[in-house]
Design a protein that fits this description.
Helix content: 55-70%
Order of helices and strands: HHHHHHHHH
Number of strands: 0
Distance between the termini: 34 Å
Number of helices: 9
Strand content: under 5%
Structural class: mainly alpha
Radius of gyration: 18 Å
Largest sheet: none
Length: 164
């Protein structure tokens, strides 16, 4: 997703270092802190902050934020192209923003060592939604991930352990 978004931002701004244009674009200058953080982390490793490194350093939070309603008039027309396989009848900003925010929230629970097995049905829904959104970015991703996705077997094991 990060690379798909970056590709569309390059197209929108017409340059590889799209992030240098945020401060000059009305309504986007509040995104500069994401870029400043990326620059700081890259320079802390004593590396040169190239466009590809800036892109790689962007957080999930940055990508999710770009689909918030405050950026709809500025970015949505271009960023929707990051999801070329999303069915046209549902291709609206809110239909990308909502699942991305659920993914971010779920990922944050995991990263903060919070329990996620409180509702296994919900966990399964989130997993299925992730596969669906990946398919909106690249139609081949769901089939490819199926070759190594262990979710169903892990879920079955958890259910057995919890006797559900």
């Amino acid at each position: 997703m990060r690379n798909a978004i970056s590709r569309e931002l390059v197209a929108y701004f017409g340059r590889d270092d799209w992030y240098t244009q945020l401060s000059a674009t009305p309504g986007l200058n509040n995104l500069n802190h994401y870029i400043a953080t990326a620059n700081k982390q890259i320079s802390g490793r004593k590396k040169l902050a190239t466009p590809s490194k800036i892109t790689a350093e962007q957080t999930l939070g940055f990508g999710v934020t770009l689909f918030n309603s405050q950026y709809e008039r500025i970015l949505w027309k271009d960023l929707r192209r990051a999801f070329p396989y999303m069915p046209k009848n549902i291709r609206q900003r809110k239909n990308i923003s909502a699942p991305l925010n659920r993914f971010r929230s779920f990922r944050n629970r995991i990263f903060h060592h919070e329990p996620i097995c409180w509702n296994l049905y919900r966990v399964q829904q989130i997993h299925n939604e992730m596969i669906q959104v990946m398919g909106w970015i690249n139609k081949d991703l769901p089939a490819w991930t199926a070759t190594f996705d262990r979710f169903d077997s892990v879920l079955k094991s958890v259910r057995q352990r919890l006797s559900i």
